[in-house]
Structure to design on (732 residues):
């Protein structure tokens, strides 16, 4: 029989998209009966005597997700042998594509033999070989080449891949998602750089068990360092990375990181450990001694049910210089927390505990509190009888110190807010607030700052406030865009509050800013309350045009009473008239970002806060500038409000398609002018960093130089050189 149209044998004909392969060893067993095979062709011949189908012209054959496309296919239905020739494309059920000159398959389309093979993996990686065989889904290739890099340029012309792996034999297991090599070598830019007698890696970027690319760096503290991670994949939801760090000048260090995703949440645990020398931070004159040194970090979050969740984290170091010595972190305080939460649409409950570890030399660990428990409950009542919204809150806190003041606090409060828009467009907000506090303190004399102590024993107080705020947005056209001018006025009335009778644990770092200018209480925490009546006034201005946006605000407040406030002098809130604060944000497309925050002295307009953050450029080439000067003139007795000045510079320059230069620096400009207690000369570099990087679709290379100027204990100042190399699918 001869057909000159598309024909289906067994089931209806179906058009197939470009396909790709799976291979296998040919078999002489008879084909299975009653199996659905899609078969389409421009021309088809069928020999009834031999039961052989010969198809020509855009032939397509598919079974169980495996598909073949070729110029010609000869199918022996008795033996189940399928031979495809001419522009053969095979797609396996896993989604990989294979190209070849000729393929011999079983009619399962799974196993077979192919000549001049090219496999295109799902992630774009390529495997090429002179010949290949596939059995039980596993492809074995002889004299093969693998590369995840592009092999054509933007013009469509062939090009040599940046790197490739050549081997006498390559095995591809799509089920295990692994590619294994025998007698392989790595070639970079066409030059052999590394012999690899045995190697395996994931077929895509999903990862798999094996070694990752080493990290190499040189530091002043430890000498030459080589870190070789070994990644262990236990399953799709958990893994472990073990990284030995070998140093030329100090003992080795072992790093481990375990990650686990569960049905209810996820957690991870990482740690570092070594046994080596360290210096005493309390007495630098003492000789170095051998000791265990390490660091543990863990975090996780679990959704217990629809409303309850549990989260926590911990960070603990063996000593105060370990993190700096081994270039893990530059944090000077570590925090550990646990938090049990319950949330509904109208309520919230949090039960917390937290603790701190100081890494600063000269600080006493016993003066840092352990908070357990910290309980916060909130309830929102919408549309009550009087209208508006009511927020209820209860809070308790217990702070315990081994060498300092102990504090327990509890309060209950309520806040009512009513917001309305007048017929003239004014936005009016009315607020009423009330709260009752009770405190208990011990060992108050161990707190050096008198204003932070409070009275020993039990102390109670009541807090109340009434407030009214009016905003009047005025909208109009300006310079081809839209502007919005919004004057704001707020009136707050509150009676005298017993502030200094209770300790100050959470409201020490106070500073007048644009963000808290119109706040009901401009202290950051609960332990201090702004207890004088006042009027606050300011204006917001915004302008929007195509590609441009400007936001600005400025404001000030005035006290209606002359009694003393609990604010320290220099915070901008001392006295009847506050300092002037403002903020300006400018955005021009994605090219310019500029933010300026400031505070001007009410008496002489001296700049008490000057903060600038600016970015100019694109994602590939940009420059950033950060500057901060706090000139509050606060006495040295308040350690939380010290003045300082610093500048931060950074940038990136892409000078070629794949090449970039980057750098950053931090300079401490703090001198005795800003901080009378400072011993700095007004120009002290903190850290510099300069690097060169190359990054394309399959290779990342980087070299970085960093210099640290801060020295503590055995964490000395000096240079760090880091070399980083990452091959796609071969690890970082």
């Amino acid at each position: 029989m001869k057909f000159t149209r598309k024909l289906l044998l067994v089931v209806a004909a179906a058009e197939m998209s470009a396909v790709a392969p799976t291979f296998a060893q040919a078999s002489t067993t008879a084909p299975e009966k009653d199996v659905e095979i899609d078969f389409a062709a421009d021309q088809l011949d069928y020999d009834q005597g031999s039961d052989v189908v010969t198809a020509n012209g855009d032939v397509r054959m598919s079974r169980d997700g495996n598909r073949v496309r070729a110029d010609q296919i000869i199918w022996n239905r008795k033996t189940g042998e399928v031979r495809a020739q001419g522009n053969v494309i095979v797609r396996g059920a896993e989604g990989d594509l294979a190209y070849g000159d000729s393929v011999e398959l079983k009619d399962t389309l799974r196993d077979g033999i192919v000549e001049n093979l090219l496999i295109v993996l799902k992630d774009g990686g390529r495997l090429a070989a002179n010949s290949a065989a596939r059995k039980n889904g596993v492809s074995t290739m002889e004299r093969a080449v693998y590369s995840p890099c592009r092999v054509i340029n933007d013009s469509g012309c062939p090009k040599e891949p940046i790197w490739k792996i050549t081997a006498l034999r390559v095995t591809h297991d799509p089920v295990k998602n692994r590619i294994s090599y025998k007698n392989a070598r790595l070639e970079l830019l066409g030059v052999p750089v590394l012999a690899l007698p045995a190697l395996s890696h994931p077929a895509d970027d999903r990862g798999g068990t094996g070694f990752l690319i080493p990290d190499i760096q040189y530091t002043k503290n430890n000498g030459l360092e080589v870190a070789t991670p070994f990644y262990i994949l236990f399953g799709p939801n958990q893994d472990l990375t073990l990284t030995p760090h070998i140093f030329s000048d100090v003992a080795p260090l072992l790093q481990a990181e375990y990650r686990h995703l569960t049905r209810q949440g996820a957690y991870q645990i990482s740690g570092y450990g070594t046994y080596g020398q360290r210096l005493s931070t309390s007495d630098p004159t003492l000789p170095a001694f051998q000791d265990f040194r390490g660091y543990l970090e863990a975090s996780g979050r679990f959704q217990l049910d629809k409303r309850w969740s549990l989260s926590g984290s911990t960070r603990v170091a063996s000593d105060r210089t370990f993190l700096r010595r081994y270039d893990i972190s530059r944090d000077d305080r570590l925090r550990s927390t646990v938090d049990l939460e319950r949330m509904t649409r109208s309520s919230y409950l949090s039960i917390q505990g937290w603790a701190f570890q100081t890494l600063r030399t000269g600080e006493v660990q016993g003066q840092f509190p352990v908070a357990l428990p910290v309980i916060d409950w909130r309830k929102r009542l919408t549309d009550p009888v009087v209208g508006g919204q009511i927020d209820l809150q209860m809070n308790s806190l217990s702070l315990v110190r081994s060498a300092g003041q102990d504090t327990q606090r509890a309060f209950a409060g309520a806040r009512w807010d009513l917001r309305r828009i007048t017929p003239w467009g004014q936005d009016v907000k009315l607020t009423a607030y009330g709260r009752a506090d009770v405190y208990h303190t011990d060992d108050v004399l161990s707190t050096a700052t008198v204003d932070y102590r409070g009275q020993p024993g039990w102390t109670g107080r009541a807090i109340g406030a009434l407030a009214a705020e009016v905003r009047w947005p005025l909208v109009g056209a300006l310079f081809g865009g839209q502007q919005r001018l919004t004057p704001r006025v707020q009136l707050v009335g509150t009676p005298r509050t017993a502030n200094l009778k209770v300790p100050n644990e959470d409201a020490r770092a106070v500073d007048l800013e644009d963000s808290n200018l119109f706040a009901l209480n401009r202290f950051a925490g609960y332990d201090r309350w702004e207890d004088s009546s006042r009027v606050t006034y300011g204006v917001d201005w915004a302008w929007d045009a195509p590609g441009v946006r400007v936001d600005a605000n400025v404001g000030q407040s005035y006290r209606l009473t002359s009694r003393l406030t609990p604010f320290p002098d220099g915070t901008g809130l001392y006295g009847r008239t506050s300092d002037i604060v403002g903020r300006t944000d400018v955005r021009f497309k994605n090219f310019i970002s500029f933010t300026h925050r400031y505070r001007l002295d009410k008496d002489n307009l001296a700049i008490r806060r000057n903060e600038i953050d600016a970015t100019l450029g694109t994602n590939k080439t940009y420059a950033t500038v950060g500057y901060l000067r706090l000139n509050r003139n606060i006495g040295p007795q308040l350690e939380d409000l010290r003045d300082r000045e610093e500048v931060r510079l950074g940038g990136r320059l892409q000078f070629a398609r794949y090449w970039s230069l980057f750098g950053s620096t931090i300079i401490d400009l703090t001198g005795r002018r800003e901080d009378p207690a400072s011993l700095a000369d007004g120009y002290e570099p903190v850290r510099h960093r300069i690097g060169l990087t190359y990054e394309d679709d399959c290779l990342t290379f980087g070299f970085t130089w960093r210099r640290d100027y801060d020295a503590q204990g055995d964490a000395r100042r000096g240079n760090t050189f880091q070399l980083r190399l990452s091959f796609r699918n071969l690890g970082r």
